[in-house]
Design goal:
Layout: H1 2-20, H2 25-38, H3 47-72, H4 77-98, H5 103-123, H6 132-135, E1 138-143, E2 149-154, H7 156-173, H8 178-187, H9 193-217, H10 226-246, H11 250-272
Antiparallel strand pairs: 1-2
Helix pairs in contact: 1-2, 1-3, 1-10, 2-3, 3-9, 3-10, 4-7, 4-9, 5-11, 8-9
C-alpha cells in the first residue's frame, strides 16, 4: 500500500515541480511526512529519510524536465553551471545540519520556510523588476518564438551568495530550491519566465546529484522506497514540462501558495503542540 501512496505523491510532485519550476520536493516532503508519520501509513519514515528520498526523486524530476526543455531551447546552460558552482557548498552544509534535527525541530523550521515560500509566490507578481543587477552584471540575451529579444543578467558574486543559501535550504529540507531561485531570476535578474523555469530545473538536476551523494553518505536514503518514487517522479516531470508549454501556470501558482501556507501552518502546529 505504501508503494502506491509514494508513487502517487511522487507523480503529483513531479507534475507540479516541473510545471512551475519548483523541483517537487516542496510537495513530496510535507505530504510524505504527514501520511507517513502523522497517519502512520508509511513505515520507518523520519525527517532524514524523507529528505533523502526527496533529493533522489529530484534527480529524476530535474533530468526529465531538462530533457523536455532542451528541445524548446529554453535552458541557459551557462547560468545553470554558474548557479550550480555556488550551490555545491550550500547543499553539503545543509545536509550536515539536517542530521542533527529531530522531528519537532524539522517541522518547525520547515513550516516557517513553507510560509516564507508561499509569501514569495504571493508577492512576486506585484514586485517591480530591479534593473541594477542586469546593469552591473554579466548580460545574457534570449530571443523568444515571436522574435522578441530579452536581455537579462546578474553579478557573478551575487549569484554565488544567493545559490549558496538556496543550496543550504535544499540540503537541509530536501526541496529543489526552484521556489526561491525562480522569483529571484524573474525579479532581480530579469529572466524571461520560460527560461527561468527551464534553467531552474536544470539547476535542480545538478544540485540534487551532489545533495544525494551527501545524504547517501549520511545513510538517509530509504532505497526500497525509491522504487515507486523514481518512476512516479520521472513520469510526472515529463507531464509537467509538457503542460508548461501549453498552460498558463498562474492558476496553479495561486493554488500552490495556498497549499504551502496551510502546510506550513500545520507543520508548525505539529512542532509546538
Amino acid at each position: 500500500m505504501e508503494f502506491v501512496i509514494l508513487f502517487i505523491i511522487a507523480l503529483s510532485s513531479g507534475i507540479v515541480g516541473a510545471l512551475v519550476g519548483l523541483g517537487g520536493g516542496v510537495i513530496l516532503v510535507p505530504a510524505t511526512l504527514f501520511i507517513g508519520v502523522s497517519l502512520g501509513m508509511i513505515p520507518d519514515i523520519t525527517p532524514q529519510t524523507v529528505v533523502g528520498l526527496s533529493v533522489i526523486m529530484m534527480i529524476f524530476t530535474g533530468l526529465a524536465s531538462t530533457l523536455s526543455y532542451v528541445k524548446s531551447g529554453t535552458v541557459d546552460f551557462r547560468t545553470g553551471f554558474i548557479f550550480f558552482a555556488g550551490s555545491i557548498p550550500g547543499t553539503m552544509f545543509g545536509a550536515w545540519i539536517n542530521k542533527g534535527l529531530d522531528l519537532p525541530s524539522f517541522n518547525l523550521y520547515f513550516g516557517i520556510l513553507l510560509i516564507i515560500l508561499s509569501i514569495i509566490l504571493l508577492v512576486r507578481d506585484y514586485l517591480k523588476p530591479v534593473r541594477w543587477f542586469v546593469e552591473h552584471g554579466s548580460k545574457r540575451e534570449y530571443i523568444d518564438n515571436e522574435g522578441n529579444k530579452h536581455v537579462y543578467g546578474y553579478p557573478i558574486w551575487f549569484a554565488f551568495l544567493l545559490t549558496f543559501f538556496v543550496g543550504m535550504c535544499s540540503g537541509l529540507f530536501g526541496i529543489g530550491g526552484g521556489s526561491m531561485i525562480v522569483p529571484a531570476m524573474l525579479i532581480l535578474f530579469l529572466f524571461p519566465p520560460h527560461v527561468a523555469v527551464a534553467t531552474s530545473m536544470f539547476l535542480v538536476f545538478l544540485t540534487s546529484i551532489v545533495n544525494s551523494a551527501s545524504h547517501i553518505y549520511l545513510g538517509n536514503v530509504p532505497w526500497l522506497y525509491t522504487l515507486p518514487v523514481i518512476p512516479g517522479a520521472y513520469i510526472g516531470a515529463k507531464l509537467g514540462a509538457t503542460l508548461n508549454k501549453k498552460l498558463n501556470s498562474k492558476t496553479l501558482v495561486v493554488a500552490l501558495r495556498i497549499v504551502l501556507l496551510l502546510l506550513g501552518i500545520r507543520s508548525i502546529l505539529d512542532a509546538i503542540l
